[in-house]
Design brief:
9-stranded mixed beta sheet; homodimer; Ubiquitin-like (UB roll); alpha/beta; about 400 residues; 2 domains; L-amino peptidase D-ALA esterase/amidase
């Protein structure tokens, strides 16, 4: 890591970015009669540039469509409104109207222009939002906006669903004597509630970044982080990563200033990687995080296919749960990725320990294999020795707890 | 079903096909000190035409390669030798030599010509076969070959691994006063033992069928049966479906005799479907078999993608296990097949009960949804209303029992 960048993991991350305020409220969206926080606003009085990356599922929730439309228009952005407990997905025209009403309320109550807010929802699918309970709380949130640490912590908590803890990170670096801050919050992906999960991440910065550069930076960072997670292989209707930049640090990030761009890019990549790792580690009832690293593939895409075949194989994932260094299941899964792998060329390592060399089991290391996969975090390195393609993903084991958690209504 | 064809499900199915003999033996291939049957011969003194369908995994076990080579040469076939308990996969050159030795022993001991036997192995991956214990038992099997019902039952049992019961079916029909018999045995797919499963099916008939027609018939039957199963989405290194025809009924099956061809085709398709259904129903610790039927897709391939996305979704499978009629998870999974589905056009039925009509939840039927998915067998029908493409697969739920069963070494 670059020593010029400082990282902080306190839950009040969003409170440290100049010009942004936050607040959260409890609407009892799930109608459970409790006061769990389930609504938040993230606001900037000054206009932001903004960019987003979204689910590529054919079935897309109303808020995702609205965010895409607003970002395509390129109007200045002033904030994000987000609710948990209900995904506003598969809700038809009523869902469209509700997303629009959330946006309008947020914009009006914060005295922001039209089409200056982004909206996200996460939680149960196929049910309409309780707008009667939400509208008064949007007004309350708008009145309570502040840069107080407690507000920022509440915002990070309000977007959670089945997560067991908030996921926050902040990076700071200095450019020409001025501090630049980037902060992010996220909620988990692995999957959810009675119904449906979502991976959401909101990143805000006081740097001044032009829209198209912002889009490139968040796309690259997402491809090296959130797009490399697999807990159960499922992809939600609501996945969204949003990045807002309000320029209040006075420091511009652009290709004309390579040092600043490099620092910003590195900090953003690290923030997204840290949030992604926190999401996987907090996957539903998982006990292990496994990095699968494939090299020597015919292409990067082929390497990714191998990583995903291994990382999504139920047989591989259950063997990890059982602390079983089962390279047979692993090779079988790699084989059905069908990238042309040849068993007699394969080198396989668990962490640094050889398991197969040119396809031959290194059985003298059997005790070490067992010890490594009995840990709660390890790396699988598969070298196909066919080409220069490489890729990696983060995966998890599959546990009885996952099945138990997700079977219930 | 065609009333001209009679189906029988006794475990001695193979004993009823003219000119075929069988036997089985216990070699203790897994080195557990027990006398579980783990080797069998299926033999015809008169030469057979033969055809096979095999795994498309990049990692292919030695026996699969040998079968493909022998079938490509087109020499007359006299039998099958099969062991369970060890897959002879990822075993390098030693594995090739062992497969070759199994074949040579079987051929010599049954006084059959060279390259007249097919070989299959199923079980643990990555370990060499105990040939010293197997060779004497191959000799014993050759001496004990007979058409006794007990021998046929033993053969059906000897190929099992984690299956809880043998899978057998036999069809008979009459052509011009002569009886034609087709019989099949199979072992399960879902997945297996400590290490690796295989789906194996051996079908034999006393009809006289030319090789290329036999190949077409078994390929078509497999595409409508074994290729439409998913228990955990994993595909083994050893999957094989073999069909042998020795002509001893005296009845020829060919396009020149449409009535006979139609009866044969229908009986073969039904045998493969029945064996496939038995495999899924006996999947490891599953509690439900679910048929997923997609229609109205842009193409048959698109329909199959939707079926597989739904049938392999962990979230969908766990919801079935929990008797939860969770159409939200189902639509999310269908959406990430990315065939261009449009939520507002979807009709979804559980059995005959509407769940979504033009994308709108039919919540008045909620109690019926629950009742249907609480059963041990039901059909999901998803009509995309986009085109004429259609497909189906058989899937299962995902249970804590599956995870528990597969986590152990």
């Amino acid at each position: 890591m670059n020593s010029q960048i400082q990282y902080h993991y306190s839950t009040d991350a969003l409170a440290h970015v100049s010009g942004f305020t936050t607040s959260a409220a409890a609407c009892d969206i799930r109608n459970k009669g409790n006061d769990r926080l389930d609504l938040c606003l993230i606001h900037s009085a000054t206009p932001c540039t903004a960019a987003g990356v979204f689910t590529t599922n054919d079935v897309v929730a109303a808020p995702v469509t609205y965010c895409q439309d607003v970002l395509a228009e390129g109007t200045p952005i002033h904030g994000i409104i987000c609710n948990s407990g209900n995904a506003n997905a598969c809700t038809g025209e009523q869902g469209d109207r509700d997303a629009e009403e959330m946006l309008m309320e947020a914009e009006q109550q914060t005295q922001s222009p039209e089409k200056s807010y982004l909206v996200c929802s996460t939680g149960r699918i196929g049910e309409v939002l309780p707008m009667d309970r939400m509208v008064p709380k949007i007004q309350e949130c708008a009145q309570n906006l502040s840069a107080e640490p407690q507000n920022a912590t509440d915002a990070a908590e309000s977007i959670l669903t089945s997560d067991t803890r908030p996921k926050t990170v902040r990076a700071e670096f200095t450019l020409d004597g001025e501090k630049v801050t980037i902060a992010g919050i996220a909620k988990g992906a692995g999957m959810i509630e009675p119904n449906m999960a979502t991976m959401l991440a909101f990143v805000i910065t006081d740097a001044d970044v032009e829209t198209s550069l912002l889009h490139k930076l968040i796309t690259d960072a997402t491809n090296q982080s959130f797009n490399r997670l697999t807990v159960d292989g499922d992809m939600s209707t609501n996945d969204a990563v949003l990045l807002l930049a309000n320029g209040q640090s006075g420091k511009q990030i652009s290709p004309d200033i390579p040092e600043g761009l490099q620092l910003f890019q590195e900090a953003l990549n690290q923030i997204c990687y840290d949030l992604a790792h926190k999401i996987v580690s907090d996957g539903e009832r998982i006990t292990k995080v496994v990095k699968i690293h494939t090299t020597g593939a015919p292409s990067d895409l082929a390497a990714e296919k191998v990583c995903r075949a291994v990382g999504n194989s139920l047989l591989v994932k259950t063997s990890w749960y059982g602390n079983d260094p089962n390279w047979g299941r692993l090779m079988d899964a790699a084989g059905y990725a069908r990238v042309g792998l040849q068993m007699e060329k394969i080198d396989l390592h668990y962490d640094e320990t050889p398991v197969l060399l040119q396809g031959k089991p290194q059985t003298q290391n059997r005790a070490d294999w067992k010890s490594i996969v009995s840990g709660d975090s390890f790396t699988i390195h598969l070298d196909l020795n066919l080409g220069a393609g490489k890729s990696w993903i983060l995966s998890t084991d599959l546990t009885e707890g996952y099945v138990d958690f997700n079977k219930s209504e």
